[in-house]
């Protein structure tokens, strides 16, 4: 290779790394019928134009109040419910419009850990059969001995004794059952795991154990996680980036440290002000939101948060703010930045 060719290669622009998961303008509108034989009278705008991406080995946390559409986003990505519009790409391949026969081989790469570790496990099956099911369904083992070996390895990964494979779900504690759920998600060799409120039903000490387990598995296996939660204290310990949802839309996305130290949206600021401080003697300004969350059947015009925002002005009630960059890697949907009147909360008050 001559020096000119080497020089050209050295000067070539680096190839951009493709995210593992890309979600573009995802929508899920549930129809409402006034009667069994009647037509559609309205829609519930559960998810209404959500976009984000997750890199390989990254955790993105999707946070917000109950009913904002977080879980619907996760289930729509997995095609457990069909999207109304938008695109979902896995490793560059569009999967939201694939027929079931073509989607099935890709399902082994996308798995889910549900909120309730008991109802998500078949009570009639032993743990061995629960974990063996995805292995055999995707043809990942040859013969019973190979399946048993894989099941034993999965139990090792989630730090359960190997004799657990002989027992039924009701014989385990909530935290142990969630470990079984995580093992089942790992069984087919998933790249992406969607954790849908995976620790919200557990005791505080058990939550920490499961979060540590997920972090260790991510480091070991290079997993990507979509961590859906309303608990910002837990999110802070597991995530790389945070996306904040309100009434079907994402209002802020940022790297964890930037979001927790300097939120750019009033809703995020209010959420963070409600997180308990480790030091009971510490004080910070609490942001109290007035009013109720509007109905997703008839979202308000303009910014959907304007009915509760303490900083709202006329434009907020008319124009819907786009999600745009406020700082490098930090996106927010708020007109206050354009107006130059965004109130800044001191970082010390939020950490």
The level 1 CATH classification of the largest domain is Alpha Beta
Largest sheet: 8 strands, mixed
Quickly count the helices.
11
Overall pLDDT confidence: 88
- The CATH architecture of the largest domain can be given as 3-Layer(aba) Sandwich
Helix content: 25-40%
SSE-based structural type: alpha/beta
Shape verdict:
globular
Q: Which stretches are low in confidence, meaning pLDDT under 50 for 5 or more residues running?
A: 344-351
CA-based gyration radius: 22 Å
CATH superfamily of the largest domain: P-loop containing nucleotide triphosphate hydrolases
Strand arrangement in the largest pleated sheet: 6-7-8-3-9-10-12-11
Strand content: 15-25%
**Helix-strand sequence:** HEEEHEEHEHHHEHEHEEHHEEH
* Termini gap: 55 Å
Would you count the extended β strands for me? 12
Number of domains: 3
CATH topology type of the largest domain: Rossmann fold
């Amino acid at each position: 290779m001559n020096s000119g060719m080497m020089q050209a290669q050295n000067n070539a622009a680096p190839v951009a790394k493709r995210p593992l998961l890309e979600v573009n303008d995802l929508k899920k509108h549930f129809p409402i019928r006034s009667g069994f034989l009647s037509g559609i009278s309205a829609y519930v705008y559960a998810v209404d134009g959500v976009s984000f991406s997750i890199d390989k080995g990254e955790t993105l946390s999707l946070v917000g109040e109950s009913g904002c559409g977080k879980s619907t986003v996760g289930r729509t990505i997995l095609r457990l419910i069909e999207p109304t519009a938008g695109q979902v790409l896995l490793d560059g391949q569009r999967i939201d419009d694939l027929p079931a026969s073509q989607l099935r081989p890709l399902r082994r790469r996308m798995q889910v850990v549900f909120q309730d570790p008991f109802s998500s496990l078949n009570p009639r099956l032993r743990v061995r059969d629960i974990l063996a099911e995805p292995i055999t369904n995707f043809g990942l083992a040859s013969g019973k001995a190979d399946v048993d070996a894989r099941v034993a390895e999965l139990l090792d990964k989630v730090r359960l004794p190997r004799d657990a494979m002989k027992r039924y779900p009701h014989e385990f504690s909530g935290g142990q059952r969630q470990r079984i759920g995580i093992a089942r998600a790992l069984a087919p060799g998933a790249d992406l795991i969607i954790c849908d409120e995976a620790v919200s039903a557990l005791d505080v000490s058990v939550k920490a154990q499961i979060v540590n387990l997920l972090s260790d598995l991510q480091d070991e296996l290079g997993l990507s996680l979509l961590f859906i939660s309303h608990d910002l204290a837990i999110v802070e310990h597991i995530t790389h980036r945070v996306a904040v949802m309100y009434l079907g839309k994402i209002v802020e996305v940022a790297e964890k440290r930037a979001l927790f130290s300097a939120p750019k949206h009033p809703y995020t600021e209010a959420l963070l002000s409600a997180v308990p401080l480790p030091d009971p003697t510490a004080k910070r300004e609490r942001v109290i939101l007035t009013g109720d969350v509007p109905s997703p059947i008839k979202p308000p015009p303009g910014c959907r948060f304007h009915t509760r925002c303490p900083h709202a002005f006329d434009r907020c009630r008319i124009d819907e703010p786009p999600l745009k960059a406020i700082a490098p890697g930090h996106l927010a949907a708020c007109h206050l930045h354009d107006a130059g009147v965004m109130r800044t909360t001191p970082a010390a008050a939020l950490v």
